[in-house]
Automatic annotation (TrEMBL):
The gene is LOC101508558. Residues 93-206 form the Disease resistance R13L4/SHOC-2-like LRR domain. This is Probable leucine-rich repeat receptor-like protein kinase At1g35710. It is a single-pass type I membrane protein. Residues 29-66 form the Leucine-rich repeat-containing N-terminal plant-type domain. Residues 1-23 form the signal peptide. It comes from Cicer arietinum. Keywords: Glycoprotein, Leucine-rich repeat, Membrane, Receptor, Repeat, Signal, Transmembrane, Transmembrane helix. InterPro entries: Leu-rich_rpt, LRR_dom_sf, LRR_N_plant-typ, LRR_R13L4/SHOC2-like, RLP23-like. It holds the Pfam family LRR_14. GO terms for cellular component: membrane. The keyword Signal applies.
C-alpha cells in the first residue's frame, strides 16, 4: 500500500513539473513584445539585455517587472550611466511595446542613443501611468493628442530633442503629479490651460526656447514643490500668483532668462525654499529685506543681474551654495552668515566690491569647498591659509585682486582642476604641481624662473617679471 501511494505521488508530482515550469514563463504576448523591443536595439555594449532569451521567464529579465499573481509584465525599466558610454543603448523604441497590455510604468532613462519620434505604441497601452523617457535622442513634436493618455500620473520627456510647441491637450492629463519636458528644443509660450493640472508637484520646462511672459496661473498649483523654468527666453516680471506657493515650494529656478523688474518681496515668505535661482536675468533694485526670513535656504544664485546695495542681512543657518557675482554690490567683506556656514561647498562673489585681507577671513568650514570665485575684487593678502585647508577644491578663481604670496607655498589637492590667479601680486616660481592642473592662469604677476614642462598656451604665463622656457622665450644659459 505504501509502495502504491509513493508511486502514485511520484507520477502526480512529475506530471505537475512541466506545468509549473510552463506556468513560470510570462505571457506569450509579453515575451514577443519584449523580444521585439530587443530586436530594435542595434547596440548594447554593456550587454544590458543579455538575459532577454526566448523561452525563459521574461519576469526574470533585467529591467522587467511583473504582476505577481498573473505573471504579466507591469514595468520596463532600463537605465544607463551618464558617465559610462558603455552603458548606453542605440536603436529605436519598437511598436511591439503595444502588446504589453498590463504595463503601467515605462522607464527608459539615460540610455543616450534611443532615437525616433514619440512612440505611438504607448497610446495602445490602456493602463499606462508613468512614462520616463529621459536623456535620449527622441525627436519631432510631442503628439498633439497626448491628452488622450488620461491615466498618466507622471510624464517626463526631458533631455531629448523634441521641437515645436507644448501641445495644449497636455492640459487634459489632470492626474499628472509630474510634468518634465526640460532640456529639449521646445518653442512658443506656456499653454494657459496647463493650470488645469492641479495635482502637479513637479513642473520642469527648463532648457528650452520658450518665450513670452510666464503665465500668472500658479494659484492653481497648491501642491507644487518644484518649479524649473530656467534657461529659456521668458521676459516680463515674476508673476504675482507664485506667491501662493509659499507653503510648499522648495525649488524655484528662473535663471538664464530675460526677466526684469524688482525681485518680489513675497519671496521672503517661502520658508520651505531650498533653492532659489534668479541668475542671468535683468532684475534691478535691491534684494528685499524679507530675504532675512529665508533661514532654510541652501542654494541662492542672484548672479548677473543689476542688483544694488544694500544687500540684506540674512539669517541662514547653513548655506551650501551662494553666487552673488556681477551685480552692483559693494559688500566690502564676505558676509558673516557665509563665514559661519558649516556645510558650504560653493562660494562665488566675483565683482562684489569686497575689500578685505584674505588672511583675516576665518571661515568655520573650508574642508568641503568645491568652488570658490573671488575674482574682480580688491582682496589682498595670501590664499595659502585658505587653499591649503581644502581637500575637495575643484576650482579657485581669484584673478584681478591684490593677492600677494609665494606661489611655491601652495599645496594642491588631487581634485584641483582649475586655478586662476592672474592680475595679482603673486611671486616665486612656477612649480611642477601647478602645471599639472587642467586649466591654469598665472599671467600678470611677479613670478620668476624657468617654467616646468607643460602643455599650456603662452597666455597662461605672460606678463610676469622673469619667467622663461616653453611656451615663452628660452631661458638664458
Amino acid at each position: 500500500m505504501k509502495l502504491f501511494l509513493t508511486t502514485t505521488f511520484l507520477i502526480f508530482f512529475t506530471t505537475l513539473l512541466p506545468l509549473n515550469a510552463n506556468g513560470a514563463k510570462c505571457h506569450v504576448d509579453d515575451e514577443s513584445s519584449l523580444l521585439g523591443f530587443k530586436s530594435s536595439i542595434k547596440s548594447d555594449p554593456s550587454s544590458m539585455l543579455k538575459s532577454w532569451i526566448s523561452g525563459t521567464d521574461c519576469c526574470t529579465w533585467a529591467g522587467v517587472g511583473c504582476i505577481f499573481d498573473n505573471k504579466r509584465v507591469s514595468s520596463l525599466s532600463l537605465s544607463g550611466d551618464l558617465e559610462n558610454p558603455k552603458s548606453y543603448l542605440s536603436g529605436t523604441i519598437s511598436p511591439s511595446l503595444s502588446k504589453l497590455q498590463y504595463l503601467d510604468g515605462l522607464y527608459l532613462q539615460n540610455l543616450q542613443n534611443i532615437s525616433g519620434p514619440f512612440p505611438d505604441s504607448l497610446f495602445k497601452i490602456p493602463n499606462l501611468q508613468f512614462i520616463y523617457i529621459e536623456n535620449n535622442k527622441l525627436s519631432g513634436q510631442i503628439p498633439e493628442n497626448i491628452g488622450k493618455m488620461t491615466k498618466l500620473g507622471a510624464l517626463s520627456l526631458e533631455g531629448n530633442r523634441f521641437t515645436g510647441t507644448i501641445p495644449s491637450s497636455i492640459s487634459e492629463l489632470t492626474q499628472l503629479t509630474q510634468l518634465k519636458l526640460g532640456n529639449n528644443f521646445l518653442t512658443g509660450t506656456i499653454p494657459e490651460l496647463i493650470k488645469n493640472l492641479k495635482n502637479l508637484t513637479f513642473l520642469s520646462l527648463k532648457g528650452n526656447q520658450l518665450s513670452g511672459n510666464i503665465p500668472d496661473f500658479f494659484s492653481s498649483f497648491t501642491n507644487l514643490r518644484i518649479l524649473e523654468l530656467s534657461n529659456n527666453k521668458f521676459s516680463g516680471k515674476i508673476p504675482p500668483s507664485i506667491s501662493s506657493l509659499f507653503s510648499n515650494l522648495m525649488y524655484l529656478e528662473l535663471g538664464h532668462n530675460s526677466l526684469s523688474g524688482k525681485i518680489p518681496d513675497f519671496l521672503g515668505k517661502f520658508k520651505a525654499l531650498d533653492t532659489l535661482d534668479l541668475s542671468k536675468n535683468q532684475f534691478s533694485g535691491t534684494v528685499p529685506k524679507s530675504f532675512a526670513n529665508l533661514t532654510k535656504i541652501f542654494n541662492l544664485d542672484l548672479s548677473d543681474n543689476f542688483l544694488v546695495d544694500p544687500f540684506p542681512l540674512m539669517n541662514v543657518k547653513g548655506i551650501e551654495s551662494l553666487d552673488l557675482s556681477r551685480n552692483m554690490f559693494h559688500l566690502k567683506e564676505i558676509p558673516k552668515w557665509v563665514t559661519s556656514s558649516p556645510i558650504i561647498f560653493s562660494l562665488k562673489l566675483a565683482n562684489c566690491g569686497i575689500k578685505m585681507k584674505l588672511d583675516d577671513w576665518k571661515p568655520l568650514e573650508t574642508y568641503f569647498y568645491d568652488f570658490i570665485d573671488l575674482s574682480g575684487n580688491e582682496i589682498s593678502g595670501s590664499v595659502v591659509g585658505l587653499l591649503n585647508k581644502t581637500e575637495y577644491l575643484v576650482e579657485f578663481l581669484g584673478s584681478e585682486n591684490l593677492l600677494k604670496f609665494d606661489l611655491e607655498s601652495l599645496r594642491f589637492g588631487n581634485r584641483l582642476k582649475s586655478l586662476d590667479l592672474s592680475h595679482n601680486l603673486v611671486f616665486g616660481k612656477v612649480t611642477k604641481s601647478v602645471v599639472g592642473i587642467q586649466k591654469l592662469n598665472v599671467s600678470y604677476n611677479h613670478l620668476c624662473g624657468e617654467i616646468p614642462k607643460n602643455s599650456f598656451d603662452a597666455s597662461v604665463f605672460v606678463g610676469n617679471n622673469c619667467l622663461c622656457g616653453p611656451p615663452l622665450y628660452p631661458c638664458k644659459a
